[in-house]
Amino acid sequence: MKQYLDAAIEIAREAGAILREGFDRPKTISYKGEVDLVTESDRRSEQLVVARLRTRFPDHGIVAEEGGGAAPTASYCWHVDPLDGTTNFAHGYPCFAVSIGLAEGGVPMVGVVFNPVSNELFAAARGEGAYRNDVRIRVSPVEKLATSLVATGFPTHRRKKSSNINYYWQFTLRSHGVRRDGAAALDLCSVACGRFDAFWEFGLKSWDTTAGIVIVEEAGGRITDLRGQPYRLGGPSILASNQRIHQEVLQVAASIAEDAANDT
Question: Is this structure's pTM higher than 0.70?
Answer without folding.
Answer: yes
